[in-house]
Amino acid sequence: MEKKYWQSLEIYKEIKKNSASEKEAMPEFSIDGLDESEIKGKSSRRDFLKMMGFSVGAVALVSSCQMPVRKAIPLLNRPQELTPGVPNYYASTFYDGDEYCSILVKTRESRPIKIEGNDLSPVSQRGTTARVQASVLDLYDDARLKGPMKNGKQSSWKTIDQEIKARLDTLKTDDKEVILMTSTLISPTTRKLIGDFTAAYPNVKWIQYDSLPMSAMRKANETNFGRAVIPYYHFENADVMVGFNADFLGTWLMPVTFSKQFSKGRKIKDGQTKMSRLYQFETNLSLTGSNADYRYQIKPSEEAAVLLKLYNTLARKTGNTVYTAPSVKTDVNRVAKDLLKSKGKSLVVSGTNDVQIQLIVNAINTLLDNYGKTIDLNTPVNLKQGAESDMMQAMSSIQSGKAGGILFYNVNPVYDCVHQDNLKKAIQKLPLKVSFSPVMDETASLCDYVCPDNNYLESWDDAEPAKNFFSFVQPTIRPIFDTRQFQDSLLTWLNAGQSYSDYLENNWKENFFPKQKEFTSFDKFWFKCKQDGVYSFANEEKAQPAYKPARLKAAKPRKNGLELALYEKISMGTGKHANNPWLQEMPDPVSTATWDNYVTLSPAFAKAQGLKQEDVVKINGKLELPVLIQPGQTEGTLGIAVGYGRTEAGKVGKNVGKNVFGLMNTAFGTKNLLGTVVTLEKTSKTYPLALTQTHHVMEGRPIVRETVLGEFVKNPAAGNEEHEKFLKSENFSLYPEPKFDAIQWGISIDLNSCTGCSNCLISCQAENNVAVVGKEQ
Ligand code: SF4
Asked: Over 70: is that where the pLDDT of 638 sits?
């Protein structure tokens, strides 16, 4: 019998009414507790048509994002490479402090208009994400600062440079600490420049700050392998993958790379008759969970215990040390059996920033002989280098008066740090506060000086996302506004007498060119680097470091209390791109909600609390958010996305949703998205959510035709019986059979390897200039 899929609770109810069994309609998630009114959606087909239509608001929004026309000069001397109407592509790199991607920038008449993936990159492998696709719109964002600012007012670079330089010199003479707080920097040349800067100003202390750090994994690897690194994962070499609260296809670490790797094991073509299997243990329903073959719902406090149970099950079967573990009901026998069958071809990961959890994960992967096969410690990933201890030290320096100044580059801790209010109060006392933010964000608005950085499409740089894999950032347009690259600001204050593009080229000439043997001329080497956008050096180190076991332990899962699981949305991430309307309007691939964050609750829990969709609840007695009932949410937990509640972001992103960074769990010395115990109470308010859930229904036709691998191997037409029947039937038509002589275009998507990442959605929006319609529409 054909399986019925449901896109919304409303459709589920309809299927359930007409189905012999509930299982047929709903294989996995519980929606116990829903009544008729909760299941009935509010969107109508009319709304859908409105949603797809054009709106005056969108025109205004898009037009406000146009590049300002300054001088229109006809191309009397047209550059050789420019043909009107024919695009040029330049290789570059997207890196926003969290996410990395090697890209090609499509430009038309010298304006960047579209981002594509770079197929020469061994890291991102031609992939992109929704955020990468949408980043082209940030270039034309009217919220960008048009020039340097002093005390909230427009200033000039000359004034700002003189004053900042004088203050830096005074602080150096007074031996007062100046904190340079940056995001994780993956550019070797920028790191070198910071080295020059700190050499000239020894009182400058550089720290890297990640709003969502991964320091626990680094610490665990230091304990087990003597290296504080994040390894390079190879999901493509894994027959069996197990994820614990790691949305590696959506937001965790390197989703572009992992999605590419994952899809390789899911394709059934070119004679491949095996598919990889994915087991996902998680609290919120994530994109990765929705792609899993087997999904298990666990509370944050159960994760360590379930992992230890899995480790012990494997250890018993392989004669390894077993540790005392608290009891937990989750059955791990199936996954353990599958993992043991796939030793050396499996991979277990956890996205939880907890050292104990990462130690258990390392023990399991060691037991399964996965190092050197699906996990490579010799090619460390350079993302997420921030450590919570550095931030704590910086805070204490500021509060104690040891620090006299702070410079913020590509970070916004007043918005996304756990102790935002303390930091806000503390930095106000500092005599020198400088931000390089391109917009007046929450941190920049507290600074004396804002030296707006160029957009990445106007900049030069390099990147090394993982050891020996390099890519290059090169400008595809001159700076639209009177902005200046962060690195050029540092060079100016160093009186270096050179631009950053020269500094970058010199660094490659002196330090990288001699390491390669392919080119004898630097000019040819440098041209190739810029043309391809990537360059890799061979990794000589082959043997993986030896494993040193650590004692494994897990705390007892909580019996009481409502556990919070914060998460990143694919669209909004940590909120850096909150002013990007394409991302705000992008339906979340799991909840299909746009424009807001909300509290996800399981249907049974919501019923028990007397809560309906869109009811407003209070978290910890103060934070008000609407409820979204989410099948797949673990009982006794709630999920809320970070990245919302920006108060200084621009017209689009300001005051959309609520800021929940302050609810992160810091109980174990690390910043963790999971596990804070919160209270929840109902209010009498409601708040409308904009969901696209019932849109795009197929008017009764099946959405998906499917079969299982075994049937497909026997008969490649399996699952397509309806079509076979149709071909055999006599189909009468009043009209003559149409003849198609010209080229016909179609689009096909391999649903085995499609993860639902929504990259294509934003790509289509960019390519076809689809209007943004706003939440109301
Ligand atoms: S087809 Fe699927 S995997 Fe590909 S971009 Fe679209 S949603 Fe992502």
From this structure: yes
